[in-house]
Q: What sequence folds into this?
C-alpha cells in the first residue's frame, strides 16, 4: 500500500517536525501486515493541483485537522476524491467533531471523507490500514465513524492508550530521518513525555484528553528522542505536555536535556507549560535548564482573575494566591514568567477584565503577558450549544493569517466578541485597553512610565483610560489618531467577518502584526512625537492634585526617552536628574511593593548603553525591528547606571 499522511503547517515561521503525523506512521510500522507499506508525510501548503501531483496512486490519504489547516485539508481531500476515487480518505485530529450529531453533519457536508477518527489516532489508524490491506470491513473498528449502506455508523468507543509500548517514536524508527531529508532546516521539535490532563477547563480541548488520567511515555523513549534531537543540533524544543512538572520523573527529563546541552550545545531554548497548580517545588525544572544556559520561562496561565469567570470555565481549583507566590519566587530566582489572559470568557465583565490586565503586570522586566481573544474550539465544552446559551456567547468568524501557501488560502476560527456580561462595545474597549498595556509593557514602548505609575501611583487603569479617551478625540495626523485608526481598522474587519487577528500594513513594515504590535510599531516609528502626545495625556491624568510633581513627570519622560531610543540611533547618553531613578528601578525589582523614589542631595547622572545591534541598524525600519527582536528574545534590560 501507499499511504500519505497530511499535517499541513501551522502559522509559525519556524519549521517544525510534524509529530502527530509521525506518531501514527511510527505506530503503523509496528504491524507485520504493513511491512511493505510506503509512507509519505506532507506538511507544506501547496496549490491543490500541485499537491495532487505529488501522489503516486495512493491507497490511503490521512489528514490531521486543526483550525489552521482545516479548509486547506478539506480542499485537498475533495480534489483527491475525484482524482483517486478508490483511495480511502481518513480524517483525525482536534477539529474532528466527537459529538455524534456533529460528526454526522460533518460527514454529510464532506462526502469526500470516508472515515473520521476520534481521539488518539495511533492504534485506530494502524487497525484501519491493516483492514485495508486485508480487504476487510472497517465499520466495526473502534473509535471511528464511517458510512455503511448509505448511513453514518460508529464503531465502539476506543479506550485511551495506557501502554505506549504499543506505539513507537517517529524520531527513533527512521520516520523523521526520511522526512528531514525532504525537509531540511527544521529547527523546532515537539516532544511529548506524557499524555492527558486532569483539569477540565471549558475553553480547552488539549489533545482531546482533558479531565483524564495522565499516562507516561516510556522514559527510555523520551531520553532517546532528546538524544536524537541533540545529535541533529535542533535548537528549539517544545515539550507539549499539558502540565509539565506534574510527574515525579520530570526533573530527571530536564536534567537529561541539560546534560546533552553541555555535550552538544543544543537546545538553545526549551518551552513548556508548567503544571497549572505549580508550586515552588516545580521551579527545579526551570532552574536546571537555566543553569545549563538553556532559555526558558514559566508559562503561568491564569486566563482571568475574576472568581465567577474561573468558576464558569472550571478553573476555580487553581489558586490565585499560589500563582502570586510563585511569580514572586520566580523573580527572586531570576526566572522570567509569562501569563495568559483570555478576553471573551463566560461571566467576564469589562470592569473585571480591566482589573485583570492591571493585576497581571509585574515589576520585573523579563516578565510578560499574552492577551488572546477567546476562540471556540471544536469539542471544547465552551463551544457546546448549552454553554453558548447559558453565557450568551456571541461570535464572529476570523480569518487565520496563514503564512504559507497561496495568498488565497483562507482558514477560519470562531472568536467570541460578546457575552451575556460583556457587550460588543465593551469587548472592543477591553481589547484596546489590553493591547495598549501590552505594547507599553511587553514591547517596552512606555514601560518606565508604566512601572512608575504602577508602583508609585497605583493607577495604571485610570491612566490607560485617560489615554484611550484622548486617542478617541485625537486629531488626524497625530500618532494617537494613527494608533486609534490602526486598531479600529483591525477590529472593524474582524467584526465584519472578513478580518484576522494579525494584519499587514505597508506603512508599518509589512507585518503581519497583532494588535499590540500594531500599536508598538506605530509608536516606535514616530517615537519622539508619540512621547510628546503621551506626555500631554499623562499630564492631564496627573491632574491638579499632582499624583507626581510636575518636575517628576518631566524627568520621568526624559528617562523613558533615554532607555527607548528613537531614530536616528544615538550613542550612549547621560541624563542629569534630581531623583534617583536608577536606585528606584533596581529596588523595585526586588519586591512586589514599590520602594520610595528618593531625591538626591545633588544632581544624579544617569547613563544607558543601547544594545549593539540597535546601534548597528542601517535605517529606521531595521532599528524598530531590532528593538522588537530584542524584546521577544528577552534581551531587553533597561539598566540605568549612575
A:
Amino acid at each position: 500500500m501507499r499511504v500519505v499522511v497530511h499535517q499541513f503547517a501551522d502559522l509559525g515561521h519556524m519549521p517544525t517536525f510534524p509529530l502527530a503525523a509521525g506518531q501514527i506512521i511510527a505506530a503503523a510500522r509496528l504491524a507485520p501486515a504493513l511491512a511493505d507499506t510506503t509512507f509519505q508525510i506532507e506538511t507544506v501548503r501547496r496549490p491543490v493541483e500541485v499537491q495532487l501531483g505529488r501522489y503516486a496512486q495512493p491507497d490511503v490519504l490521512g489528514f490531521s485537522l486543526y483550525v489552521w489547516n482545516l479548509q486547506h485539508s478539506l480542499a485537498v481531500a475533495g480534489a483527491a476524491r475525484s482524482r483517486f476515487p478508490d483511495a480511502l480518505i481518513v480524517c483525525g485530529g482536534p477539529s474532528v467533531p466527537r459529538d455524534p450529531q456533529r460528526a454526522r453533519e460533518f460527514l454529510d457536508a464532506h462526502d469526500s471523507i470516508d472515515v473520521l477518527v476520534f481521539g488518539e489516532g495511533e492504534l485506530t489508524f494502524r487497525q484501519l490500514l491493516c483492514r485495508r490491506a486485508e480487504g476487510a470491513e472497517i465499520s466495526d473498528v473502534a473509535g471511528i465513524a464511517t458510512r455503511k449502506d448509505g448511513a453514518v455508523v460508529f464503531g465502539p468507543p476506543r479506550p485511551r492508550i495506557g501502554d505506549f509500548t504499543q506505539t513507537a517514536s517517529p524520531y527513533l524508527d527512521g520516520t523523521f530521518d526520511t522526512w528531514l531529508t525532504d525537509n531540511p532546516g527544521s529547527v523546532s521539535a515537539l516532544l511529548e513525555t506524557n499524555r492527558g490532563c486532569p483539569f477540565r477547563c471549558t475553553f480547552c480541548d488539549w489533545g482531546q484528553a482533558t479531565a483524564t488520567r495522565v499516562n507516561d511515555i516510556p522514559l527510555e523513549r523520551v531520553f532517546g528522542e532528546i538524544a536524537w534531537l541533540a545529535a541533529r543540533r535542533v535548537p528549539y524544543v517544545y515539550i507539549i505536555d499539558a502540565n509539565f512538572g506534574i510527574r515525579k520523573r520530570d526533573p530527571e527529563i530536564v536534567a537529561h536535556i541539560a546534560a546533552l546541552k553541555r555535550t552538544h550545545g543544543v537546545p538553545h531554548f526549551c518551552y513548556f507549560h508548567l503544571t497549572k497548580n505549580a508550586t515552588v517545588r516545580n521551579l527545579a525544572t526551570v532552574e536546571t535548564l537555566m543553569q545549563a544556559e538553556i532559555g526558558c520561562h514559566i508559562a503561568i496561565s491564569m486566563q482571568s482573575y475574576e472568581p465567577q469567570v474561573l468558576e464558569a470555565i472550571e478553573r476555580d481549583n487553581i489558586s490565585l494566591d499560589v500563582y502570586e507566590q510563585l511569580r514572586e519566587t520566580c523573580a527572586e530566582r531570576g526566572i522570567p514568567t509569562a501569563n495568559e489572559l483570555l478576553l471573551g470568557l463566560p461571566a467576564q465583565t469589562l470592569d473585571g477584565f480591566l482589573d485583570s490586565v492591571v493585576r497581571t503586570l509585574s515589576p520585573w522586566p523579563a516578565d510578560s503577558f499574552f492577551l488572546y481573544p477567546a476562540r471556540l474550539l471544536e469539542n471544547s465544552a465552551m463551544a457546546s450549544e448549552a454553554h453558548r446559551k447559558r453565557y450568551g456567547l456571541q461570535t464572529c468568524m476570523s480569518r487565520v493569517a496563514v503564512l504559507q501557501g497561496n495568498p488565497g488560502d483562507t482558514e477560519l476560527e470562531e472568536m467570541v466578541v460578546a457575552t451575556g456580561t460583556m457587550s460588543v462595545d465593551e469587548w472592543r474597549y477591553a481589547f484596546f485597553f489590553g493591547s495598549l498595556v501590552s505594547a507599553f509593557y511587553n514591547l517596552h514602548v512606555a514601560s518606565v512610565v508604566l512601572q512608575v505609575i504602577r508602583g508609585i501611583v497605583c493607577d495604571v487603569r485610570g491612566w490607560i483610560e485617560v489615554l484611550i479617551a484622548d486617542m478617541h478625540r485625537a486629531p488626524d495626523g497625530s500618532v494617537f489618531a494613527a494608533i486609534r485608526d490602526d486598531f479600529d481598522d483591525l477590529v472593524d474587519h474582524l467584526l465584519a467577518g472578513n478580518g484576522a487577528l494579525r494584519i499587514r500594513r505597508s506603512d508599518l513594515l509589512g507585518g503581519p502584526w497583532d494588535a499590540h504590535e500594531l500599536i508598538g510599531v506605530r509608536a516606535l516609528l514616530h517615537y519622539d512625537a508619540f512621547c510628546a502626545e503621551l506626555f500631554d495625556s499623562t499630564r492631564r491624568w496627573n491632574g491638579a492634585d499632582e499624583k507626581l510633581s510636575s518636575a517628576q513627570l518631566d524627568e520621568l519622560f526624559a528617562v523613558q526617552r533615554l532607555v527607548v531610543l528613537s531614530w536616528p540611533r544615538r550613542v550612549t547618553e547621560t541624563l542629569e536628574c534630581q531623583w534617583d531613578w536608577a536606585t528606584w528601578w533596581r529596588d523595585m525589582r526586588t519586591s512586589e511593593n514599590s520602594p520610595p523614589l528618593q531625591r538626591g542631595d545633588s544632581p544624579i547622572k544617569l547613563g544607558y548603553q543601547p544594545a549593539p545591534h540597535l546601534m548597528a541598524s542601517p535605517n529606521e525600519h531595521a532599528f524598530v525591528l531590532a528593538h522588537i527582536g530584542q524584546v521577544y528574545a528577552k534581551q531587553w534590560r533597561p539598566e540605568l547606571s549612575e
